[in-house]
Amino acid sequence: MISEDLVIKDLHVSVEGQKILNGIDLTIRKGEVSALMGPNGSGKSTLAYTLMGHPKYTVNSGEVWFKGKNVLELGPDERAKLGLFLSFQYPQEIPGVSVSNFLRTALNAVKSQPMPIPEFVKLLKEKMRLLKVDDKFARRYLNEGFSGGEKKKAEILQMAVLQPEMAILDETDSGLDIDSLRIVAEGVNNLLNPGMGVLVITHYQRLLNYIKPDKVHVMIKGRIVRSGGKELAHELESMGYEKMVKEADVRA
Amino acid sequence: MMQQTTQKAKMTPLTKVKSGSAEKEKAKHLKSLNELPMPEERQEAWRYTNISKFRLNEFYPFDGSAEISVSDSTGLKEKGVILCDINTAFNEHTDIINRNTVKNNSRAYDKFTALNASHWSNGIFLYVPKNVSVEIPVNASFLISTKSAVVRNIIIAETGSKIDFIEDYSSDSGEECLHSCATEVYAGADSKINYYHINNWGNNAGNFTHITGVLDRNAAINWVSASFGGKLNRLRIDTLFNGEGSQSENLGVFVGRSREHIDITTNVYHNTAHTTNNIMVDGILKDSSSSVYRGLIRIEKAGQQTNSYLSNHILKIGEKSLGNSIPALEIEANDVKASHGATVGQVSEEHLFYLMSRGLTRDEAENMIVQGFLEPIISKIPSEELREKIRGLITR
Ligand SMILES: Nc1ncnc2c1ncn2[C@@H]1O[C@H](COP(=O)(O)OP(=O)(O)OP(=O)(O)O)[C@@H](O)[C@H]1O
Ligand SMILES: [Mg+2]
Fold first, then answer.
1. B17 in contact with A, Cβ within 8 Å
2. Which CATH number covers residue A171?
3. What is the pTM (predicted TM-score) of this model?
């Protein structure tokens, strides 16, 4: 049977000749929220970029499977068409390309059938309302001059329109004010369904209070050092990473 | 704002006649053509264009002509507007032509200028009388299907008149061909001209187009140009601010593909006071294409209280593409505002990855970035139909 989960096996990745991921084994299930935590520079974004196919990240060994496909053999666009989505920690600003024009092109790219314009406009409006973003948003150039929080909202807006099956949210909470955090989290919860898996990368319990994780994984120095339920996130909140880092050093 | 353009309206071919009165002048320039040397790349006006490689003689005897069609002008005749073949104009409207051409104090003259002046065989003449506003744009299309075509156009807008003019040039095959075009635009006092130039050449065409705008007091010319294709696609627009208070905007876009070379010059000459100029030319270089943009702002001693700006941005998509930008300021007056800015940059891999991660193929992502890059200029074009037409040519 073809697995609907995103399965990562013994993944080793380097960037510019430097080894960053040292054997990641991780399964992200559809219908579940998984959280990935870990200190700065431990390799969380590297994993996210690698899963999405960023050309800078070299996979030295390992496998990634999703819906029966060897993900590592696919280009970023093919991964998106397969149902993968990455909400960027640092979204790019694209001059001259309006949010709505971009999203319509992207939606038509990932869906097998092009959506008629009026239907798209309706969909976009609905999702913008869900995330409480201004109507003007659609006409603005993609992320250009957006505040940090607006960029994160725009990422989730894209996710809401594209409706991926497997979404990686890389520090979507950073840059969001308290109200926006709640709105975005509610938006994400609203989109969750049994056919969708989410990997939430975050430093803070605050987000996980809204988006309740089924699993929590901790990455240190390019390895998953602990996995558990949501109580693990609470433990980290009070204890920090220090002890785990020391243990990881001992093992390395 | 311009009205809906008449692009889809019926275009009628312009019949060609012979002009007796122009022959003497042509003979004079023929002498120069034969005497002048081929320009060289080290000359300022030809830098970064390897013109010595261009074998002009292969197109001898330069006797082809363009197929010209113009939009319906019936409603215009009553207003006194003249739209006819340039030869007819030289036969019938010599006085109007002479009265205006003396105002052209451009000093640009080289072998290619001489070629045009000695060999032009057809072109259009458009005349708008005093205080006449032409509300519907006049369209002219020029199709080149001969080995060579030498075209001359004259456009005259008298005092207080207003006109929108749209011209598009194309060659209908990938064959080698030479197109030479000289256009003079005379903007009378308080007149307003919106001038749209679109060219779309086959990839073996050599194009040498030189447009000169001469502005009287408080006149305005807004240039819009879009250049596509051509083995060597040269477009030069000179703006001569001869009348106080005259103003001009110049918006240009170009896209180079395969091994095409795009050569754009916009020179402005502020010969008098209180004149305003703003130039924005942006281009895209794909594959192994190359380009050069030259932009001179010259402000004479008499050009006090001039505002003159120029910007040129080039985005390289092709790794083997080559973009050159040579902006220049020559300022003799002391009370002016003038600046220029130019950038040449490579498309960002991070931008491409971002768009591709949403499902766009590399080609789709590139097209989107290209469109976005030119959008600040395109969005300023005051005609939805032309905006759409140019967008279409950009992503063709
Ligand atoms: N493109 C790159 N070029 C050079 N070094 C890189 C690059 N990407 C990541 N690295 C390095 O790899 C390591 C892991 O970075 P990564 O961004 O994956 O960490 P992270 O866990 O996401 O950290 P944070 O919590 O701060 O976002 C860091 O030491 C970083 O400097
Ligand atoms: Mg990170």
1. no
2. 3.40.50.300
3. 0.91
